[in-house]
């Protein structure tokens, strides 16, 4: 297959941010393994379902960005290690060790016990929205819901939630402001450093006043068992904090927008609420919050679709393209809440399959169910073209704002 390097500026446009799926379709058809050159970093994109699933379990594609090659330096800069040298960016046996420690905190039984508290948080947020008749759902609902849940689960004091949220949002929305790039990078680095220092101080406070929460359990693994180093204690907490709210917030926004722009599917779900569990899987397949899996590094020359990916190359597995592959999904660009549940890759695949899947599904079910029930007549508050999104080149697919209107009511 002829290899043609695609410029990132030709892909990551405003049109792509609004709807990346026509671009993904062209890549799958014309260049399913596509080298892309961009200012951030060059990478090979893998876009078909079969190749994506294979790549996600390919031991030649390493997640260890902090090994001998020190790939994190060229990808994310020198300040990233203090927060990002964690389970996500590691291979077995390190990944296996870290995942085993963390998985106990996300056991389905423990997560299910949170259901009443999640419902309480959802109702509390909606109690403020319901009387208004309009809302900006990202900042009034979709973002605070998973942030409040993960902060409580971790044991981050309520008084600190607002500033922790501010720091994480600076990182999430990088590239969306009109500031010069150097100012944007400086803001992100400052937020990373402040969040790192906060977590270091929080560990000291938690040691002085132990509590029955995830951070307390991680500290115990560090201090008593020696299973975690001090640095791993901080980076693991950051991973759980960021991953525990970022993708869920973006999913809630994407899912709500998808329903609002597909009124027949919206009405189907409103009148058939028992479809909600399977609908969430379809909404995740249709427009997931993590379009490209976190970077992998080729540890040797690797061939996919006749294209040689040279040793040391960055590989991006395009989850959202794989989930629209017509070889695996009939009419993949159609939102079909009655679709027979298929093997989508929205939660990943293999050893890096999402650890927080039970929590994400529960928050999505409770959150979307409450929106359908408590906001009658829900509709977009601006034309679709005016909905503000994360930048096209962002590693996340999500909305900056989601203005809506509905029938105001004093009742719950």
UniProtKB/TrEMBL annotation:
Pathway where this protein functions: Antibiotic biosynthesis; mycinamicin biosynthesis
InterPro entries, per database record: Cyt_P450, Cyt_P450_B, Cyt_P450_CS, Cyt_P450_sf
GO aspect biological process, one term: antibiotic biosynthetic process
One Pfam match: p450
Keywords: Antibiotic biosynthesis, Heme, Iron, Metal-binding, Monooxygenase, NADP, Oxidoreductase
Record-stated family: Belongs to the cytochrome P450 family.
Name this protein carries in UniProt: Cytochrome P450
Species of the source: Micromonospora viridifaciens
């Amino acid at each position: 297959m002829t290899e043609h390097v695609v410029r990132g500026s030709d892909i990551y446009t405003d049109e792509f941010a609004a709807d990346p799926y026509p671009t993904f379709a062209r890549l799958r058809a014309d260049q399913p393994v596509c080298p892309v050159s961009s200012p951030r970093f060059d990478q090979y994109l893998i876009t078909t379902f079969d190749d994506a699933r294979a790549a996600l379990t390919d031991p030649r594609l390493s997640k260890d960005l902090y090994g001998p090659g020190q790939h994190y330096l060229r990808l994310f800069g020198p300040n990233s290690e203090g927060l990002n040298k964690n389970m996500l960016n590691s291979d077995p046996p390190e990944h296996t060790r870290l995942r085993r420690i963390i998985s106990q905190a996300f056991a389905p039984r423990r997560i299910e016990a949170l259901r009443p508290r999640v419902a309480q948080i959802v109702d509390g947020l909606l109690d403020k929205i319901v009387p208004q008749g309009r809302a900006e759902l990202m900042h009034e609902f979709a973002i605070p819901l998973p942030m409040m849940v993960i902060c409580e689960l971790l044991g981050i004091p309520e008084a600190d939630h607002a500033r922790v949220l501010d720091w994480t949002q600076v990182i999430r929305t990088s590239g969306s402001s009109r500031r010069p790039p150097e100012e944007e990078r400086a803001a992100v680095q400052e937020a990373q450093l402040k969040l790192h220092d906060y977590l270091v101080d929080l560990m000291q406070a938690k040691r002085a006043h132990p509590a029955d929460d995830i951070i307390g359990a991680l500290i115990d693994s560090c201090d008593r068992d020696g299973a975690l180093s001090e640095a791993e204690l901080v980076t693991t907490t950051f991973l759980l904090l960021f991953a525990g709210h970022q993708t869920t917030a973006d999913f809630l926004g994407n899912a709500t927008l998808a329903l609002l722009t597909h009124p027949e599917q919206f009405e189907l779900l409103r009148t058939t609420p028992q479809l909600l569990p399977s609908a969430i899987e379809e909404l995740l397949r249709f427009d997931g919050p993590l379009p490209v899996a976190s970077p992998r590094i080729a540890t040797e020359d690797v061939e996919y679709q006749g294209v040689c990916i040279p040793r040391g190359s960055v590989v991006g597995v395009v989850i959202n393209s794989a989930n629209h592959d017509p070889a695996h999904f009939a009419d993949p660009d159609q939102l079909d809440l009655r679709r027979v549940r298929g093997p989508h890759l929205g939660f990943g695949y293999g050893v890096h399959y999402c650890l927080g899947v039970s929590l994400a599904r529960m928050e999505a079910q409770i959150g979307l169910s409450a929106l359908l029930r408590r906001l009658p007549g829900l509709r977009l508050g601006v034309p679709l073209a005016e909905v503000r999104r994360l930048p096209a080149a962002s590693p996340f697919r999500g909305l900056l704002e989601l203005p809506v209107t509905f029938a105001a009511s004093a009742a719950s």
